[in-house]
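Re: the request from the purification team.
They wanted to know what the chain is likely to look like in 3D before they choose a buffer screen. I agreed to run a prediction and write the result into the notebook, where they can find it.
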Amino acid sequence: MSMTLYLGCLIRTLYPEVEKAVYEVLGRIGVVFEEPKGASCCAPLGLFSLSKNAWLRLNERNMRLFQSTVLTVCDDCFASLSDAFKILSEKNNVRVPEVKPFGKFMLEKLEEKGLRFSFKGLRCAVQHSCHLLRPARNVDNAENPMVVKNVLEKLGYIPVSYVSELDCCGGLVFEEKMRDAIARRKAEALEKSGADCVVTTCSHCMRQLKSVSRLPVLHLAQLSALSMGANPEEIGISEILLRRMVNP
């Protein structure tokens, strides 16, 4: 299987351990991928773009560089690319690449290959990305999201439900005081959940929660790679978390 890998800006610049984990996962499940030279930021419309037209033109350029299904590792990238491609497809009557978020991709591959793993003891609270849950994007159940939880279970971890699970982390709120208040409130709920760590598939959620949470905040790719035998140190898994796991 060949795919186009689109890591996004934040993972490349802030989280090399997540980048390494993604490469480990793809290699271990036999996925051939390419990273197109010259691909640029997808400029999420509500975050960076100065105009809808500029956002569309930028992603039309990206689209021409993608030759196969696009795997995104950040849910903001997924939302921006998939929304732009849908508009371009309808506007220009052209065939566009499918865009697939990492969580859904992992669930499909684990089910396809019948893979299950045996790590035990690590309790994971999921920070669900707002962009992934919008019904129009047809990725997960907005009221009872299960994609990331199902992946965690197949990897051998324990998903933990908690109060305010569907609340936003505030990562894309522009007003600083409001953004910080939302983040702290979410961090408190996560810490009361009894979880050992927070798991997300969005780099903006990672950045927001890492700044306020006393729990380790991980990308799903890191735990996926760990279950498949990657070196914990290279993918950013701490000794504290490792001591909470049992691999019979």
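For the purification team: The chain has two domains: 2-103, 116-242.
Please add any questions underneath this entry.
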